[in-house]
C-alpha cells in the first residue's frame, strides 16, 4: 500500500458513515471500499452517533476515523488519508489554520478521572436535549442515576424509562440535579426497643 503517512497513526479498522447514503459501515486500513455494518439504521444522524460510540469504545479518534474513510474511498496515498490533517472533531484543517490537536488515549484517561470525580455512582442527571435511542424515547427532562464512568469518560446511567444509554460529555447535553438529597446508608436497621 502506497502511503504518505505513518500507518501506525491509523487503527486496523473503524466505523464510519457513508457520505451519500448515510449507511453505517466498517473500514479496514489499507483496503479500498468498505464493509456493511449490521447495526446500520435508516437514520444518518443516529448512524453517526453509533460510529462515534463504537470508535470511542476502541480508542479511535474522530480524526483517525475521517482519515480512514478518505483512504477507503479515494486511496491510501492521498493527503486526506492522514489523520494529522483533521481536527478533534474529524473536520479537515485548512492550510494555515490552527486547531487543537487530536487527544491521545492518555489524555482521555486523565479527563475520565475528572468526570468520574464529578459524576460518582448514585449522582442524578437530567437531559437538557433529546437523545437518540432506537429502543426508547429519551426526551428533555428525563432523569437517570449514574452507574459508572468508563476510561473514555462516557457516563453510564440507569434511566427512569429503563434505558441504559451512556452519556458522552461534550456531545450530549445534560446536567447534574443539584437538588438531589444525599443518600443515607446505615450498616444495619435499628430494631424497636422492647419493653420487658
Give a concise summary.
With 196 residues, this protein is an alpha+beta fold. Helix content is 21%, strand content 16%. It has 3 helices and 7 strands, in the order βββαααββββ.
Mind explaining what this structure looks like?
It is a single chain. The chain is of the alpha+beta class and 196 residues long. It has helices at 44-57, 62-74, 105-118; strands at 13-17, 24-28, 35-36, 124-127, 143-149, 155-159, 174-176. The strands form two sheets. Strands 6-5-4-7 form a four-stranded antiparallel beta sheet. A three-stranded antiparallel beta sheet has the order 1-2-3, sandwiched between helices.
How are the SSEs placed, and which strands pair?
Elements: E1 13-17, E2 24-28, E3 35-36, H1 44-57, H2 62-74, H3 105-118, E4 124-127, E5 143-149, E6 155-159, E7 174-176
List segments where confidence is low: pLDDT < 50 over at least 5 consecutive residues.
182-187
Overall structural class, as computed from helix and strand content, comes to alpha+beta
Strand content: 15-25%
Number of helices: 3
Q: Summarize the biggest pleated sheet.
A: 4 strands, antiparallel
Helix content: 10-25%
* End-to-end C-alpha gap: 89 Å
| Oligomeric state of this protein | single chain
Amino acid at each position: 500500500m502506497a502511503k504518505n503517512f505513518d500507518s501506525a497513526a491509523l487503527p486496523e479498522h473503524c466505523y464510519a458513515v457513508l457520505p451519500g447514503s448515510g449507511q453505517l459501515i466498517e473500514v479496514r486500513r489499507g483496503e479500498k471500499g468498505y464493509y456493511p455494518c449490521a447495526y446500520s439504521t435508516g437514520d444518518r444522524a443516529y448512524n453517526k452517533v453509533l460510529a462515534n460510540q463504537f470508535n470511542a469504545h476502541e480508542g479511535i479518534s474522530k480524526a483517525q476515523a475521517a482519515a480512514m474513510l478518505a483512504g477507503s474511498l479515494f486511496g491510501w496515498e492521498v493527503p486526506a488519508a492522514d489523520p494529522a490533517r483533521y481536527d478533534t472533531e474529524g473536520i479537515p484543517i485548512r492550510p494555515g489554520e490552527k486547531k487543537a490537536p487530536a487527544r491521545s488515549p492518555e489524555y482521555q484517561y486523565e479527563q475520565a478521572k475528572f468526570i468520574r470525580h464529578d459524576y460518582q455512582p448514585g449522582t442524578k442527571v437530567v437531559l437538557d436535549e433529546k437523545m437518540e435511542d432506537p429502543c426508547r424515547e429519551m426526551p428533555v427532562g428525563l432523569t437517570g442515576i449514574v452507574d459508572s464512568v468508563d476510561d473514555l469518560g462516557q457516563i453510564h446511567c440507569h434511566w427512569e424509562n429503563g434505558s441504559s444509554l451512556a452519556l458522552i460529555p461534550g456531545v450530549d447535553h445534560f446536567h447534574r440535579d443539584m437538588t438531589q438529597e444525599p443518600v443515607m446508608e446505615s450498616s444495619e436497621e435499628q430494631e424497636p426497643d422492647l419493653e420487658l
